[in-house]
Amino acid sequence: MFKNIKAPSLNTALKASTVAGLAAAVLATGIPLEITRSYAEAVKVQAPSVPSFANVVDAVSPAVVSVRVENRVKPVSDDDASGFSFDFNGRGFDDLPDALKPFFRQFGEQGPQGRRGPPHHGPQDGKGRLRPVAQGSGFFISDDGYIVTNNHVVSDGAAFVAVMNDGTELDAKLIGKDPRTDLAVLKVDGKGRKFTYVNWADDNNVRVGDWVVAVGNPFGLGGTVTAGIVSARGRDIGSGPYDDYLQVDAAVNRGNSGGPTFNLNGEVVGINTAIFSPSGGSVGIAFAIPASTAKDVVADLMKDGQVSRGYLGVQIQPVTKDIADSLGLSEASGALVVSAQAGTPGEKAGMKAGDVVTAVNGETVKDARDLSRRIGAMTPGKKVELSVWRAGKAQSLTVELGTLPAEQKDAALDDGDQAPEQAPASEKALADLGLTVGPSDDGKGLQITGIDPDSDAADKGIKEGEKITSVNNQEVSNADDVVKVLNQAKKDGRTRALFQIQSKDGSRFVALPINSQG
Question: What is the 3-state secondary structure (H, E, C) of 25-87?
Fold first, then answer.
């Protein structure tokens, strides 16, 4: 009798076959075979090579400092809230409920953002103790401790502290400041220590599109690095007659003021000074004082503690296309002289209202600010040759420069935004120009008594109460004089005439169209 034997399943047979095969492999090689599961590989991309700023940052960071500015705060008594003045419906601090006094006293004694301020430096001599009032950035420009920063960072300070990137705090002394370029120099005593410092870049090699790195102390964070490119040069932001800023699209914020912007060689191409910001924070547009400007100013401050600038003593304004047409100039360039102040170098050299300065020592003057920068960069007492355009001809004048007075503006630009004065009784209309004029009170020129709001004169900013003192550099005392000059200009082929407008704060030139004037 046969036994009933169950046949193995296909799965069992396969398993047996696999085990037998593995055993054979082990016997054949003598090495155990490792069995692993197969997984997909992690994503890995071979990125293209891009520039890194790490080497630049490593090299320059020891030369960059945070600048803490301190000023004296009036001593606090136990009966007030640390110098704060409170008024609650006529009640002062003493009238507050006892439960509220500790809060206001504590609020007054705390530093920014609810934290106690840094340690106080200097004596408490009854005039008030020193407390931080501002912060900014700066950098060493020499190994013996000279630091460059902004004037607006230090202008309200009584004491200064430079905080290095390793946390070391050093008391600093103000050596000098220059409000016109917003630069200042501090000095720390390293007691024989040699500081890491940086050099100025050559402006001639700075190009729009170059990579730059800004290092500074935004919002008091210290040691912050941002990067971008030089996005424009020669920016005028209306801060003064020497505006010539680099525009940088790196993130620069409050506290970066006075800090350096470096090229990839670790050289300072500019000093961060201002930002364009509707919100108060960075929107990616910053302005830096170029190295060429800062280099000379800083050298003067380190040497003498102040900057001596050349001085002409003339009021100037830009040459617009309309003004150029009225004067017969081929292009709108140079600086138009509005007036030469009595006794100044410009007046002594024969400069007159209506002159256009086209070159200094043979170098072309681009505009009024260019002339201001060129003259201001020269040494007082130096003789310079000015090329001027006068009465349709080029002339040359030699001027010995004076010294710019402390509060004087060598190149004041007058917007003519003045309040109207009382109109005189007599009036005569020059309707085609949109002007109504009459005799002036002093008998010189014509008083403007009315303006057509839809006229070119109104568009150019001419206002009632101002005076017309000359037209095309010819003095006028009545409306007939004006019409006579305009008719002659038409015969000469001119389409515009140059009116000299006098206001309470000075005079300026305005070009008005004369095509329709009969």
Answer: HHHHHCCCCCCCCCCCCCCCCCCCCCCCCHHHHHHHHHHEEEEEEEEEECCCCCCCECCECCC
